[in-house]
Amino acid sequence: MSPSNKSFIPKMGFLFCCLLGHLIFGNVEADTIQTIQKDYFSWRMENEPEYGTYIGRYAFNDRVYSYNISMFEVRRNKTQEFLNRLNAISSNITSSERINFLILKDTFETYINGSKWAWYGALNPMNFLEGIQIFTSAVKASTKSRGDFENYIARLNAIPHQLEEVKERFREAIRLNRTYHNVSIAGVPAMIDQLLVDPLKSNFYSPFNNSLANAANIPETEKPGIRERGLQAVNMTIGAYRSVKDFIINEYIPKTRLQYGVNSLQNGLEYYQACLKWHLSFDMTPEEVHRVGEQEVERIHQEMKMTMKRLNHKGTVKEFFNSPVNNSNFYSNDSDKIITEYKKIVFDRINPKLPQFFKDIPNVPLEIRKMSYDGPGGGYSFATEEYPGVFSINLFRPLEKPFFEFMALSLHEANPGHHLQHSYAMLADLPDYRRHTPFSFYNIPVWFPFYSAYSEGWALYSEYLGVEMGLYKDDYELMGRYSAEILRACRLVVDTGLHYYNWDKQRAIDYMLNYTAYSFEAMENEVNRYITWPGQACAYKIGEIKMKDLRRKAETELGTRFDIRDFHSLILTNGAVPMSLLEMLVNEWIEEVKAGPIVSGGSLVTGSYKWQIFSLLFLFIILQ
Ligand SMILES: *[C@@H]1O[C@H](CO)[C@@H](O)[C@H](O)[C@H]1NC(C)=O
Ligand SMILES: *[C@@H]1O[C@H](CO)[C@@H](O)[C@H](O)[C@H]1NC(C)=O
Ligand SMILES: *[C@@H]1O[C@H](CO)[C@@H](O)[C@H](O)[C@H]1NC(C)=O
Ligand SMILES: *[C@@H]1O[C@H](CO)[C@@H](O)[C@H](O)[C@H]1NC(C)=O
Ligand SMILES: *[C@@H]1O[C@H](CO)[C@@H](O)[C@H](O)[C@H]1NC(C)=O
Ligand SMILES: *[C@@H]1O[C@H](CO)[C@@H](O)[C@H](O)[C@H]1NC(C)=O
Ligand SMILES: *[C@@H]1O[C@H](CO)[C@@H](O)[C@H](O)[C@H]1NC(C)=O
Ligand SMILES: *[C@@H]1O[C@H](CO)[C@@H](O)[C@H](O)[C@H]1NC(C)=O
Ligand SMILES: *[C@@H]1O[C@H](CO)[C@@H](O)[C@H](O)[C@H]1NC(C)=O
Ligand SMILES: *[C@@H]1O[C@H](CO)[C@@H](O)[C@H](O)[C@H]1NC(C)=O
Ligand SMILES: *[C@@H]1O[C@H](CO)[C@@H](O)[C@H](O)[C@H]1NC(C)=O
C-alpha cells in the first residue's frame, strides 16, 4: 500500500482512541512513561508536520508548521501538561526506565524554561543558515496516489499563510527591537531569488510532472485537473516567497540591530546565558567559557609552535598551511584520489585499532563519498536500517585541503566519531522521540534539546583519542589535528567575545585569523554564524573538555580498575544525553566498579536495530 490517504485515517484513529479512553473506559489505564513518550512523540509529529514527512510519518502531510506567535503559549502549555503527567508518575519509575525518565524530564523542562525567551531569537525564523528558504524539499513527500497529491496541494496552499506568520514574527521582532544584525539576514533575499522562477520550472512543481505522469492508479482524465491545481498552488507559493523577500528588504533589513552581540538586547545578558546553557546542557558562565577558551587556544598554539619547530618551519601557522600548496605530496586536485586516501585512513588505519578502545562494536556499514553540495568541509549522515552511514567530503576546492588534515576529519565524522557514536545509539533501544530529534537553532532556547555538547563533544574527543590510538603518523598530521582543534577553542573566546564582551565583527575575525589556518572568507562566514546563533559553537569544545574531565576523574578514582573500553561503552551506549546526566552516570559507574568485583561497564546495549527507514537529507548533516 502506498502512503496514500494516510493523512486522514490516523487522525481519525487518534480521535477515536481518545474518545474511547475518556468516555468509555474513563482514566482507568494508569499513565506510564511509555504512554507519555508515545503521546509526546505523536504531538511532535503533528506540531512539526514537515519533519514528520521527512522521517516517514505521513499523518500530517497536508499541513505545515505554524509560526503563529500565539503558538508559543499553546506549545509551552502542552509541554507543561506532559511534564505534569511525568511528575505524577515519578514515584513509579523502574530502574530500567530511569534514564528515559530523566531525559524526558530534561526535555520538557528545557523547553518550558526556555519559553521565557520566546520573544527573542525565536521571532526571527529566517537567516543565512536556516529557514523556509533553505529547507524547501522538506515539504515534499512521495507522490504516488491521488491522496498524496491532494495532501501535497493542500500543503502548498498552506504555505502563503505560513509565510504571513513568518512576517508576523519578524514584525514583532522589529516592534520589540529584537531583530538580527544585518550579517545574519543580508544573504537571505538572494537565497529566496533562487525560488522565484517560472512555476513550471519550480522544484515545488516537479511532482506534477513525472510522478503524476507515472501514477498508474490515477485515471488519465483526472491528471490535467490535478496538474492545473498544482500549478496554481505553486504559483501562489512563489508569489508568497516574493512577498517575504520584499518584506525583508524593505521593512526588516532597515531595522536590523546595530550591535553584533545579543547582550545589547533588553535583558540580553541573561538571554545569552540561557542560550549557552541550552547548548551546553549544564551551567557555565560566559566568563568561564571565555577563560577556558583562552587557555585552550594558548595551549594548542604552543603545541603548534613546537611541532612547526620540529619541522623546521620558521613562519606563522597560516604560512605553514599555505606553503605546501604546490607540493603533490600534500595536495591533490583529483577527487577520486582523495576519496581513496580517506578510505585508506578509515578502513585500513583507524578501524583495526578500534577493538583496543571499544568493545561490542556495532557492525553498521559506512560509505565515504563526495559531498553533493558545497556545504561544510565534511559531514556525516546517519545510518538507518536500510542505508549505510555516509561520511561525505566537500571536494569543491580540493586544493585547499592538505592530506594531513584528513586524519582528524575522519576521526571526527567517521570512527570513532559520529558514525561509531551513532552506531551504538542505533543498538540502544531508544524511544522514538530520542531517535528523531529535529534540529533548529534560531529559536534556541525555545526548543527541545538535542544535546550537541554530547554529540559534538564526543566527535572532538575522538580527534584527541587519535593521539592515544597512535593514529597521527607524523608531525604534519598532528598539525592537521591542532588546526581543527584550535578552531573549536577560538570559538569559545569569540562567541563570548561577541555576545558578552562587546567585541565587534572585525576583532572576532582578526582573532580567528591570528590563530587558525583558514582564509578571511572562511573566518568571516564562521563569525557571522556565531553572531546569528549565540552559544551554539561553544558546544564542541566544552563538551569535549567535560568528557575528558569525567574520564580523568574515573581514572583517578579507579586506578588499575579503570578500563577504557568500559568507560567508552558507558558514554556511548546510552545515546545522546545532557552533560549533567552523563556526569551522574559516570559517578554512579565509578561507585559500582569500586564496590563490585564485576567490571561490566554498565553496557546497556539491548535488542537490535529498531530504526525507521528514512531518506537521507541535509537536515541531518552534522555541522562541523
Ligand atoms: C496556558 O496556561 C496558562 C496557565 O495555566 C493559562 O492561563 C492560559 O490560558 C493557557 N493558554 C492557552 C493558550 O491555553
Ligand atoms: C503506580 O503503578 C501502579 C501499578 O502499575 C498503579 O497501580 C498506580 O496507580 C501507579 N501510581 C501512579 C502514581 O501512577
Ligand atoms: C528549569 O527551571 C527550574 C526552576 O528554575 C529548575 O529547577 C530546573 O532545574 C530547570 N531545568 C532545566 C532542565 O534547566
Ligand atoms: C495567529 O493566531 C491568532 C489567534 O489564533 C489569530 O488571531 C491571528 O490572526 C493569527 N495570525 C496569523 C498571521 O495567522
Ligand atoms: C525600540 O528602540 C527605539 C529607538 O531606540 C525606542 O524608541 C523604542 O522605545 C524601543 N522599543 C521597545 C519596545 O523597547
Ligand atoms: C515540467 O514539465 C514542463 C513541460 O514539459 C517542463 O517545461 C518543465 O521544465 C518541467 N518542470 C520541472 C520542475 O521538471
Ligand atoms: C501566477 O500568479 C500571478 C499573479 O500573482 C499571475 O499574474 C500569473 O498569471 C499566474 N501564473 C500562472 C501560471 O498561473
Ligand atoms: C546589509 O548588508 C548588505 C550586504 O553587506 C548591505 O548591502 C546593506 O547595505 C546592509 N544594510 C544595512 C541596513 O546595514
Ligand atoms: C603554485 O603554482 C602555480 C603555477 O604552477 C603558481 O601560479 C602559484 O603561485 C603557486 N602557488 C604557491 C603558493 O606557490
Ligand atoms: C583542478 O581541477 C579543476 C577541475 O577539474 C580545474 O578546473 C583546475 O584548473 C584544476 N587546478 C589545478 C591547479 O590543476
Ligand atoms: C596573535 O597571536 C600572538 C601569538 O600568540 C599573540 O601574541 C597576539 O596577541 C595575537 N593577536 C591577536 C589580535 O589576538
TrEMBL record:
Signal peptide: 1-30
Domain of life where this protein originates: Eukaryota
InterPro entries in UniProt: DUF885
Record's keyword terms, sorted: Signal
Stored Pfam families: DUF885
Classification via PANTHER family: DUF885 DOMAIN-CONTAINING PROTEIN, GLR0591 PROTEIN
Bilayer-spanning residue ranges: none
Protein name: DUF885 domain-containing protein
